[in-house]
TrEMBL record:
Residue ranges the record marks as coiled coil: none
Lineage, uppermost ranks: Bacteria, Bacillati, Bacillota, Clostridia, Lachnospirales
GO function term, MF aspect, one: transmembrane transporter activity
Gene Ontology CC annotations of this record: plasma membrane
Organism (species): Faecalicatena orotica
Membrane topology annotation: Multi-pass membrane protein
InterPro entries, alphabetized: MFS, MFS_DHA3_Transporter, MFS_dom, MFS_trans_sf
Protein name: MFS transporter
Keywords in alphabetical order: Membrane, Transmembrane, Transmembrane helix, Transport
Length: 402
């Protein structure tokens, strides 16, 4: 009887975990296709738009450490509630305000919410289930998130055609449900236990210093790992302008509405999924494959700048997303294979830090470039950068790493 009760409780934990993840990612899905267009509709130029977008990224980057320490100190239920409240504040600001200053405040709240969420929910489900069950639920989570992103993206396009700010109303409703589940359901499912150790913010800062120090010395000794981390960062740098500017460019075509942009978002997610399947079934996961696909992706980005017909540009963007579906698993595989097992966690953390910095720099630099010249110019520069770096870094290492 006790075992059956415990099993039911664990099932509820897993369901609530999936619900909370889907509700949190609903914001990214419903705003993903139209958020940049929303900022443009409030008379922000490309530089201001990219700066607003970058604020959440850099906030999440710097808050990752203190929010982790705070989650350990307060407990995961309280920080989950705080995550939902911050997401509510974000949506309320976007729903009722129209100044860049308040948009920055909203993005700061979003960045902190993302920093809290990144570890809170995973840690909560691990503490309240077995290791085997938590591993299974993590795989299931990714499938659910993929579905919710597609559905929410399509919804966002339709809603935006009626009222552009309506996307934030629906996102606010999802955020309120997130808070409700955190307040009323999570405490009932929380296990009775004592944590083995609580880490202070100083402990986390010292841990970050160790990651950077150890990674730097390891990369100095291992040229191939240094090249892979540099290449992963260049990928982030090169992809950023396409991620930010695809919707404004498509929307500039005649007769294109928000619903069509939402449908484009759905097809883009599907194209990436097809890329994942092709890689899994037919392509070899090697440095040689990564090299070839990266050069092709760079050429594709350059080509986007010269496509002046809607359907040609849309097909070009789908090709880009398909290539991303190949590149993302490839670069993870190549990096993991190249790292010694004793250093894997440290180097992966360092790789994420460097890639985040490159993403932030790209947002600001490409926003300024688009303001001075054109969006197409940012694509040309990004594509050329990717082709050159792919050739210089990857080709000499093909024989050694393939």
């Amino acid at each position: 009887m006790i075992e059956r009760t415990e099993a039911k409780k664990i099932d509820r934990v897993k369901k609530i975990y999936l619900y909370l993840n889907c509700l949190f990612e609903f914001y990214a899905g419903i705003t993903g296709a139209t958020f940049i267009l929303f900022l443009y509709s409030n008379h922000l130029d490309t530089m201001e738009t990219n700066t607003v977008v970058a604020v959440s990224l850099i906030t999440a980057f710097f808050m990752e450490i203190p929010t982790g320490a705070l989650a350990d100190y307060l407990g995961y239920v309280k920080t989950s509630i705080l995550t939902g409240i911050l997401l509510c504040i974000t949506n309320i600001i976007f729903l009722f305000c129209n100044t860049i200053t308040l948009f920055v405040v909203a993005q700061i709240c979003l960045g902190i919410a993302c920093a809290f969420e990144s570890g809170t929910l995973d840690a909560w489900v691990i503490e309240n289930t077995s290791q085997k069950e938590s591993e299974h639920i993590f795989i299931k989570k990714n499938k659910y998130i993929s579905i919710i992103m597609i559905v929410a993206g399509f919804m966002g396009g339709i809603i935006a055609d009626f009222c552009l700010k309506g996307i934030f109303l629906f996102a606010l409703i999802a955020s309120l449900i997130f808070v409700g589940l955190s307040v009323f359901i999570m405490p009932k499912l929380q296990g009775s236990f004592e944590r083995e150790q609580k880490y202070s913010i100083l402990d986390n800062v010292n841990g970050m210093k160790k990651i950077v120090s150890d990674s730097f010395h390891y990369c100095i000794k291992d040229k191939s790992i240094r090249n892979i981390i540099l290449f992963n960062s260049v990928l982030t740098f090169a992809f950023s302008p396409v991620f930010v500017f695809w919707s404004p460019v498509l929307y500039n075509f005649e007769y294109v509405n928000y619903t069509l942009i939402g449908m484009a978002w759905v097809f883009m997610r599907a194209a990436m999924l097809v890329g994942n399947i092709v890689l899994e079934k037919w392509l070899r996961k090697s440095f040689l494959t990564l090299s070839a696909v990266s050069v092709a992706c760079g050429l594709c980005i350059i080509g986007l700048a010269f496509l002046k017909k809607f359907w040609l540009l849309f097909l070009g963007i789908l090709l880009f997303e398909f290539l991303l579906g190949l590149i993302y698993p490839l670069k993870e595989t190549v990096l993991n294979v190249g790292i010694e097992s004793t250093n894997r966690a440290t180097i992966l953390s360092f790789n994420s830090l460097v890639a985040s910095l490159f993403n932030y720099v790209s947002m600001i630099l490409m926003g300024k470039l688009a303001t001075i010249f054109t969006i197409e110019m940012t694509w040309i520069c990004s594509g050329i950068t990717l082709v050159i770096i792919s050739t210089v870094i990857l080709v000499p290492n093909i024989k050694k790493m393939a």
